[in-house]
Fold each of these.
Amino acid sequence: MGMTQLDRKLQAGAMMERRVENDRLMLADAVLQGALDGSRPLTAGERTALQASPLTLRRFRHLADARRSFAWRGSRGLLRAADSGAGLDLLRTDDRMWSLHFVDDGGTLCVIVQLDPDAAGAAHVLDQRPAIQVRDGAGQVVLAGVLDADGECEGRWPFAQPPSTHFQQHGARFEVIPGAPPIT
Amino acid sequence: MRGEIEDEEGMRLPGTRYQEHGWEQVRKLLGQCSLQAFVRLDPAILLAPDAEQSLDAYIDAVALALRTAGARAQAPGNSYGDTCGELALSLVYELQARPADWAALCTAVTSEHARIGPFWTQPGGDAPLRKKFNDLYAVLRDKVDSDNYQAACGRPCSPNRMYAYRMLDTAYHEIARLFDGWREHAGQVGAILGREVAAMPIEARQLRSIGDCKPEWIMHWSESLEAHSGAPGPLHTRSKRFASLKNSLEKIGAMLREIGEYEALSANRDQDWLQDRDDAGAWLDDYWRVLDESEQGSTPGPDQILEARQDELDAAEPELSLETAPVDEIDAARLAAVAEQVSLPLNYLLLAAAAEDRASWAARRMAQDSLPVRLAVYLKLLGPFDDSYPSEWLDPASGELPTMQQLSGLDGISLPTLRKRRDAAIAGLNEMAVTEEERRWA
């Protein structure tokens, strides 16, 4: 049971609507940024100041939005020499954010793209649950879909040749990028 | 060379919405619609001690007039794509959240009434009433924009500082105009540059943007105004408003540069500040997380709370007498009061209740309130239409939530009672003592 989209809008609206006479910025950007990135949680007094000052809350929102809009725009990976053997079952993007797994599901080869939750920026990507695409070095779509709550997306391996051969023949690289959601 | 377009746009600063030339139209619209509101309402309510009630009645009436204002409301009000009508309406809603400003208007009306009686019944009595509203919104727009500025760039700003930015911007455009016509204005241009002008001054060629404008020129320009126009310049009046700028070329220079830098920046940028609408509440997750982390393991003191800024420019009170907004010509044409009798389908309440997500945070948080009161909360906080509203909530006739009048009828209570209950419900939503359970939901 979660907050609905409408709930969140209403809650945000209620908080943004508040005005306090002679309000002012109570916390410096450095303090708010430290709280946002978790490096320095607010003191009890600062927490109270944030809650009591709608203007400071608006600044907080601005910084939070700016952080979020510093969005993931895609990751790239290479097929390494060591990967070129017959049993290719795992590839990683250079930024370590994504891994590709190849698994045999009862005779059907499946490809799974998985977000590493510990990678930098992964939490924001997971929050947004974007549509993503995996493409080979020639730009062909390997996999397209929407990230699930576990940070995964799965599909059938779409090519005739096995992954190692296919990637070798198509630039020996791949990318994971935000993509249009599939039409359902 | 400076193009006319640039001059037309007026000043832009981070976050501000009301500083461009469209403000003139917004101001006229608010004046016109305020007078319309007081065709429906008796201006004598402004004399009543209960300012809260007159504010609510005024907000409803002026918002209705704004929504039916037609072409003037559709005109662009700034370069960010806001129309005059949208800007006027959001200023009206700001007023609702700032009762002290309304109280100031009521005081001004009351003291004029004590002096000359019910002036609004006199021939031409609209004009002084309109002037009161012009003054109200002139102050309010700088309050709103100085808050917008602070939220956008994290630097303190006061309404008076916002006014000072605008004065400097106007001064720059005036100096640029004089430089352009240096032949006709050789005397004044000479006074600004501090030397005799016989040929085209190199400064006229070099002045491309406000960032190129020298603070000394502003000072000399202000000084020259009395001799050339008969009225003292803004930095040479006896007003305390710009007292702290009078002797500080550095401060003036820094403010000029700031306007110039933001102009250059915003001219080269797409509107990347626009947020994806679906993601508009994402910052709330950060908010709850930050509160949680602070409660779980807050940093040991000392608190790093900002000191209140003690700059003279920010401490100066806005002075209305300087904002000599010309009184509009009385707008004879007035729209007839709009009929409010939009009836709803008989089973509206049933369908609307069935469409409500009873498990939602809002429904649970406002479980003590009636459905019409809950809808009034949505109406106030999110407006008459939002993508997330179930279609059963909308009046089929308007495609929007029912109006406050309709909702009070549905609930069988008076409009003031509905407003009181709505505002109490919103205060409840804002209570910061959020339970752990809700925190987990959020």
Amino acid sequence: MEKTELYAKLNEVFHDVFDDEEIVVTPELTADDVAGWDSLKHIRLLLTLERTFKIKFSASEVNKLENVSELAGLIQRKL
Amino acid sequence: MGYNAANFDAMVLGFGMSRELFESLSWLPRPPLDFSHRCRLALDLSTDLGKRLQSLAGYALDENQLNRIAKVFAKARENGCSPAPLVPFRLGVLSNSTTDFIVPALIATAARHGVALECIGSDYGQVVQEALSPDSAVNRQKPDAVLIAVDYRGYPLNCAIGDAEAARATLEAALGQLQMIRSGIRTNGNAICIVQNLAPPVECLFGSLDKVVPGSLRGVIEELNRSIAESIRGTPDVLLDVAGLAATVGLAEWHSPEQWNMAKLPFSSTYLPLYADHVARTIAALRGKSRRCLIMDLDNTLWGGVIGDDGLEGIQLAQGDAAGEAYLSVQRYALALRERGVVLAVSSKNNDEVARSPFRKHPEMLLREEHIAVLQANWNDKATNIKAIAEELALGLDAMVFLDDNPVERGIVREFLPQVAVPELPADPALFVRTLSAAGYFEAVAFSNEDMRRAEVYQDNARRVALEKQFGDVDAYLASLQMVITFQPFDETGRARISQLINKSNQYNLTTRRYSEAEVAAAEHNPNCFTLQVRLADSFGDNGMISVVICRLTGQGVWEFDTWLMSCRVLGRRVENMVLQEVLSHCKRAGIRKLIGKYFPTERNHLSEVHYQKLGFTQVSREPNGTTVWELDVESAEVENAPMEIHRVGFDVAESAPA
């Protein structure tokens, strides 16, 4: 999947999960930048990503993620 | 009514695998594209909050969409908005896993079932303490019921394998723990319990032998589930059959070790909407809000084909025939529902006599008139008829379920009677019963002698009720269907279908003249014939060819309708107006000044009797056998328009009508 297409999809998922259409997903984005991105929302985000991209994350994979760029890379490798 | 948007339906609604039915709640309509916007709007408009939320919750929603509704609910409560007419219900939730995901889904889903749910959560893993302590959060807040959402990980089920005595002791310990929780809730919280049984894990120890050797986890769980069911009987507590739910979608789908490890989710989040619907329908049943009457369409719902056109011998309803078996299974299920106290009724666009004939005469019919409380067969819209049925039975519209294969009829009923439950149906009738059952409209928490007798109370031989005033603005709904009508002269490609319609159509057929394919071909080339094949598409799909017209030049400047027929599936959409407009425009180009129409009555075409009158023709004569002759002056004719886009194909440029 093209990077722009991937980020467009990520944008949709973020809007859906955080119920905020103002969010612009960039590679540098972290949990600190988004209001309400707590541990519960983080799980919801991961579950929604799993359903959207029809992929599975393992606990060890998602524990290490620092920002959206790493998340996008992880998704990209699974597609 | 006989409409089947087969492929389109399957594509749009995402019916494919049967698992999809449960995963996506496919009996519910898909949410609109502006769903989030509507959620925000519901909050801004403080009026009718309860109704708005119920209508938003009525779609097939995923977890994030359910969360959105729960958020609106929470904010509305903060603002002090009343959720009426939703019925309030306070639910305690005790679980050995995290309830953070379950609670918002439950609150949103309860609105779908007419309940304003308030949840009292607890820390996970505190089940016994919460139940036994009189001043625990759950007990203090006096819930109406407490959901005991404990899965197999929350019971002490490990025991020595192969030791029957130890297995029995384990079973008793687990059951004892549950009894302790239940009596704690009853004593301290004065609430009833909704008790979950246990979805067995996927992983085996031996394999098949697990079911034989005492003490295996799967064996113990099986026994425990049986004991739980027995312990419920005769108490005010109710069972939530999670084991059955998990078995239905598949244990390997239900359990997600990854999600348990990551966030202590007791089952795969994919099935959260389904689980929530099962909890919510149980709560609705406790509040007496289960549905009580099943209203069924006839053509292509209870049998295959169209009784008015195909006749008793032509409809599909035979054992040994795949389609026939599918419709028989719908009838069998309806009968079984009636046995348990669900009232049956019929709403069909048909002639009354014709609609009743299979009930009276078809040897394979399982349903008979004595099983149907009210049978409404007429040509009025179904919303009006369903309202009349509800009034006749003295049941609320919110007690009604309407089963119809035709998406347009479903849409009209949803539009005008939002209280009526109208399941989306897959294209294949083999899955009708599964879909109806999956929707859980008739969920009950008890089964009494009264229920068993109810069917007889309502048994009164398919009575017919008079209709009051026609319902609101059906036209506005039809306009929203984005209908596209296509006019085309007869041609080689259409010939087989034209001939089929000419030889099959009985009901909306003015002259019932039958022509062979060769005769149809001859009409194509006859300079004294003007022909039309008409197709109609709408937002639900392509209806295919739905009308055929042959006009013959019978005098100087005179065309007579030799043949005019229409498919009943597009009745009430003013297709006939558009066809007449089209014919009139061709008249003008061909120098025709007068149109003649004849109605020849048959056993089956009473429906067409008023056709020419409605279109503004003047009656010229009437014969003793009922034949009527009509005429229309082309120059002064005025035909009411219908909201459709017009396409024309295959007319010569010289004679093509202006758009």
